[in-house]
Design goal:
single chain, 437 residues, mainly beta, Methylamine Dehydrogenase, Chain H, four-stranded antiparallel beta sheet, 3 helices, 28 strands, elongated
């Protein structure tokens, strides 16, 4: 990075790449931050985290069905600006923040739970005046706009279509516990289940909606398969992603285009697939499985790119969804992916597999989220804490650190003075004529 500073005046590093080099350096120096201390921890594990697009608000869902919202622009220790103590009857499994829907005034968010429901909540904006207040002066609690029930079916996770201008904007796909292997699609406006995509053999544990194609969704299940769907098709299925070891046919689906349906029955993983995330471009897909593997798929070709992420990957999340977190290129020099690995958070370059960060904790990691626009990773753990990974270079210095820096500076000044004095004495001695008697 020092080289970038030297070359910047010459124009060899234009401003945006230079900024990404610096931000990349910040991500590579992530460590648990003592500065972002939350006022209190939750009573049970933090199973889900989600950010607002501007990175100001953080949503957290816990194992006892409690939802909390935090305003990260407030001074520490942070206190929740809103708490829903009975948002769900059982464990919350996933959250999604929705900045705008045409049928909702202001932002909203969705949550899923083991109580067999997906709920859509209004979210009063917390602008300069703070959250909306009731007559008594207390913060107004968000109310569910709709509740969709899936009788006798646990909802593991969900994803919401947020492609602007999409005819099915606001539709949600749900990964559910179902021996029939169906992926449910629901309409948040009407609160009705509108479609079921059949094909998985057993429960579906992970789903994702393409960030660039409003009709393209992907699901991963207990059968180890990753299936690509077009929600407009009667059959739904476009193709299955499979590795070479299974002898499967690889068929590209394209970004904004369509390929033919693949006839392969191969698996993407040798265990259940419980994590799926698109890269921001929509071209690549990152999946995690119970076989302790992370795979990167090129959706233009349908092929596994065979990136090796090494032996440290551990998928110990049961059958809960553990979606990888992507840090996009531009914010960093290369796209990075962060994953949960039991009591660790591991960071890799997406397309090379090179490890860039390894952070260990005393407790198991249950949820992970990257703060938009910032070099920060938020981690929810098994004892109800939210930890923050932040670059050590951005941390405010303690009095002891400032005193140590002052001491080192004074020591350096003393060394410089000593060198200068010795140099002057040497010059004086060497400059005198030597005579022999």
């Amino acid at each position: 990075m020092d080289q970038a500073f030297l070359y910047r005046p010459s124009g060899l590093y234009p401003t945006p790449p230079f900024e990404s080099i610096y931000t990349n350096h910040l991500f590579n120096t992530l460590q648990p931050s003592p500065a972002h201390i939350f006022h209190r921890k939750h009573a049970t594990s933090v199973n889900a985290l989600a950010f607002s697009p501007d990175g100001r608000n953080l949503l957290a869902g816990t194992a006892n069905g409690v939802l909390t919202c935090w305003d990260l622009d407030l001074p520490t220790p942070l206190k929740p600006i809103q708490t829903l103590k009975s948002a769900h009857n059982f464990s919350i499994t996933s959250l999604a923040y929705i900045p705008h829907l045409p049928f909702v005034t202001g932002p909203s968010f969705t949550s899923t739970s083991f109580d067999n429901t997906i709920k859509h909540w209004a979210f009063p904006p917390s602008g300069p005046g703070g959250p909306t207040k009731t007559i008594s002066g207390k913060p107004k609690q968000p109310e569910p706009l709709s509740t969709l029930k899936f009788p006798e079916t646990k909802v593991f996770t969900h994803a919401v279509n947020q492609n602007p201008g999409s005819p099915n904007l606001g539709s949600a796909i749900c990964a559910v516990e179902d021996t029939a292997g169906g992926v449910r699609i629901a309409n948040l406006k009407t609160g009705a289940k509108v479609q079921t995509l059949m094909g998985h053999r057993g429960s579906v544990y992970s789903v994702a909606w393409s960030p660039v194609d409003p009709f393209l969704v992907v699901s991963g299940g207990a059968d180890g398969t990753v299936r690509v769907w077009d929600v407009r098709r009667a059959g739904g299925i476009l193709c299955m992603l499979s590795g070479d070891s299974e002898g499967g046919t690889k068929t590209g689906v394209g970004v904004g285009g369509r390929g033919k349906v693949a006839g392969a029955l191969g698996k993407a993983h040798d265990g259940a697939v419980n994590g799926i995330t698109f890269t921001p471009s929509g071209r690549y897909l990152v999946t995690t499985g119970k076989d302790d593997k992370v795979r990167v798929w090129d959706l233009h070709t349908g092929e596994d790119t065979h990136v090796n992420f090494g032996p440290l990957v551990r998928n110990r999340g049961g059958f809960s969804c553990q979606n990888p977190v992507i840090v996009p290129k531009g914010l960093t020099a290369m796209e990075q992916v962060y994953i949960m690995a039991d009591k660790e958070v591991l960071g890799f370059e997406v397309h090379t597999g090179r490890m860039v960060k390894r952070v260990s904790f005393q407790e198991r990691v249950f949820s992970l989220a990257a703060r938009p626009g910032e070099a920060e990773i938020y981690v929810g753990n098994s004892i109800g804490e939210i930890k923050v990974l932040r670059s050590s270079e951005l941390e405010p210095k303690t009095e002891e650190q400032e005193e140590e820096e002052d001491r080192q500076m004074l020591l350096q000044d003393g060394n410089d003075l000593a060198r200068e004095t010795l140099g002057r004495i040497k010059d004086e001695v060497m400059g005198q004529a030597i005579t022999f008697t």
